[in-house]
């Protein structure tokens, strides 16, 4: 009877042991990944948000200003310079904030991914005003 009990006990421990070890590892690995995700996601997301927001809004505002000023060489030149400068400044500031916020939130929930570092999608197809 003692042999049977011992064999059953060992079999149970062998079956349950690896399952509990993986959950113990998850208890250690997940917080570390989240901490690293936030620590890396905020500066990288902020920097990429700044660059992507400035470029995307600079181009968008440049085209919009050219259309609003009216055509011709003077309108195109003034619209390009004014629109790109205004778009780059506003897009950079909001992109920096949005990228850092995304790095914080996604760095915790989905650490060390393209989404958590504001690097998903095409470079110029980025909307810094879209705070999700």
Task: Please give a structural write-up.
- There is one protein chain.
- It contains two helices and no strands.
- The longest helix has 68 residues, at 2-69.
- The chain is 80% helix and 0% strand.
- It has 132 residues and is mostly helical.
Biggest sheet details: none
| 3D shape | rod-shaped
- Taking all Cα atoms into account, the compactness measure Rg is 26 Å
How much helicity do the residues have?
Answer: over 70%
Unreliably modeled segments: none
| N/C terminus separation | 63 Å
Please give a handful of descriptors for the protein shown.
2 helices, 132 residues, 80% helix, mainly alpha, single chain
Précis, in short:
This protein has about 130 residues and is mainly α.
Spell out the blueprint of helices and strands.
Layout: H1 2-69, H2 72-109
Helix pairs in contact: 1-2
């Amino acid at each position: 009877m003692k042999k049977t009990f011992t064999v059953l006990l060992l079999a149970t421990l062998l079956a349950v042991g690896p399952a509990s070890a993986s959950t113990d590892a998850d208890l250690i690995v997940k917080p570390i990944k989240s901490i690293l995700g936030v620590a890396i996601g905020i500066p990288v997301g902020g920097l990429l948000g700044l660059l992507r927001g400035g470029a995307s809004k600079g181009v968008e505002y440049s085209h919009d200003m050219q259309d609003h000023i009216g055509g011709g060489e003077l309108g195109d030149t003034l619209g390009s310079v004014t629109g790109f400068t205004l778009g780059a400044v506003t897009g950079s500031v909001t992109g920096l904030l949005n990228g850092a916020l995304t790095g914080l939130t996604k760095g915790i929930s989905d650490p060390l991914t393209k989404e958590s570092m504001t690097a998903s999608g095409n470079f110029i197809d980025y909307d810094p005003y879209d705070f999700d």
